[in-house]
Recover the amino acids of this structure.
């Protein structure tokens, strides 16, 4: 399927960058990637071409909004329409879905994204998914003096309102976004690691999962999947009711003709031992369902699930993929399951991407409690 990505605010733009970098060379899936921010300096830090970036908002907020969500909302409402006109968005061959990336603790992204998504929903039939990071506790704990003080305006400055902003924005996205794909910084930053130090690694992890789900198995040159997961399949699973979505992923490096013959001069498919292929698929599916998810939750709470198993074609054992699907079916509480394969002839790993839609997570409850302890954002 073909995806358009809009990054908003510091996190959103960096994540949009990372998704662009994660596009498989043998399987393009992005129509365009755009970056919108109130902070010119942060915008310049992205590798998204200038024609695809837009700095917006009054001049006095050029350093970003530093967590002032109220102001962020005012700016967002005022600029949502204009932003979509400020860049050359594809009209001839529109994408199958739009993904709007945002860091929920901030004010630029958090203030703008609900208005932007509502505008997009009015203008198009295309589903608009939000890719949202949840703030790490250390961001607002630091503000409470538990991790020492850091200068305002820096990437590691305390964000006292991060939890309150996140919950307020999440509520505003409810009923507006087609689905909300979540990534919890708390779980993905290492103990003691600052956001600045860990964010690029986190963004790569997140982008790998997005590429694995949305690049799918169809619509591109090269071998076509036996069971193609297309845009309408993704839509059926994630839905259009603002479901909270968690992503799982597992991969394993495997031997390919290139790795076997050194320079890849022999382009014959290697003979892959069936039991090795089955075992690789079992391993990655298990990691995808039971390993670390983008948002900690019990897969049992998911209403629907999607499994995509990808890798070099010779490794994609059909029976093992069907078995993986059954494993996912028994892991989730709901009943809607879809699955497919994603051949990657140039790849050197077998992977499983898992989408769990409609999950319940204690982490969101914990953030809500933290939000209640701080000043209300409204
Ligand atoms: N995963 C990830 N999270 C990030 C990154 N940068 C920031 N965050 C998270 O996103 C939240 C919002 O940060 P920004 O995106 O910089 O904020 P903003 O939307 O630009 O808003 P203001 O800075 O308040 O104007 C933070 O509280 C962090 O939790 C990043 O590169 N990756």
């Amino acid at each position: 399927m073909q995806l358009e990505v809009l990054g908003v605010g510091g996190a959103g733009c960096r994540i949009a960058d990372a998704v662009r970098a994660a596009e498989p060379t043998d399987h393009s899936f992005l129509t365009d990637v755009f970056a919108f921010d109130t902070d010119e300096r942060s915008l310049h830090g992205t590798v998204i071409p200038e024609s695809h970036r837009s700095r917006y908002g009054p001049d006095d907020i050029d350093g970003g909004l530093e967590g002032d969500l109220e102001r962020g909302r005012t700016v967002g409402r005022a600029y949502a329409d204009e932003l979509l006109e400020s860049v050359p968005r594809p009209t001839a061959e529109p994408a199958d879905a739009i993904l709007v990336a945002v860091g929920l603790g901030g004010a630029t992204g958090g203030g703008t994204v609900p208005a932007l998504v509502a505008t997009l929903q009015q203008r198009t039939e295309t589903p608009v998914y939000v890719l949202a990071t949840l703030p790490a506790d250390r961001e607002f704990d630091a503000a409470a003096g538990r991790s020492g003080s850091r200068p305002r305006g820096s990437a590691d400055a305390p964000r006292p309102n991060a939890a309150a902003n996140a919950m307020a924005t999440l509520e505003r996205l409810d009923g507006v976004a087609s689905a909300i794909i979540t990534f919890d910084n708390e779980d993905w930053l290492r103990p003691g690691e600052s956001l600045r130090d860990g964010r690029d690694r986190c963004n790569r992890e997140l982008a790998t999962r997005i590429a694995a789900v949305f690049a799918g198995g169809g619509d591109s040159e090269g071998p076509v999947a036996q069971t193609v997961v297309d845009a309408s399949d993704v839509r059926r699973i994630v839905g259009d009711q603002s479901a909270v979505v968690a992503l799982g992923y597992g991969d394993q490096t495997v031997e390919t003709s290139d790795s076997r013959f050194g320079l890849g001069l022999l382009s014959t498919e290697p003979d892959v031992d069936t039991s090795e292929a089955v075992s690789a698929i079992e391993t990655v599916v298990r990691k995808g369902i039971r390993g670390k998810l983008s948002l900690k939750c019990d897969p049992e709470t998911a209403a629907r699930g999607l499994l995509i198993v990808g890798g070099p074609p010779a490794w994609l054992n059909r029976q093992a993929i069907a078995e993986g699907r059954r494993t996912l079916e028994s892991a989730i509480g709901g009943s809607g399951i879809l699955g497919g394969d994603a051949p990657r002839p140039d790849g050197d790993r077998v992977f499983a991407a898992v989408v769990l839609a409609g999950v319940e997570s204690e982490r969101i409850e914990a953030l809500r409690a933290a939000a209640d302890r701080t000043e209300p954002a409204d």
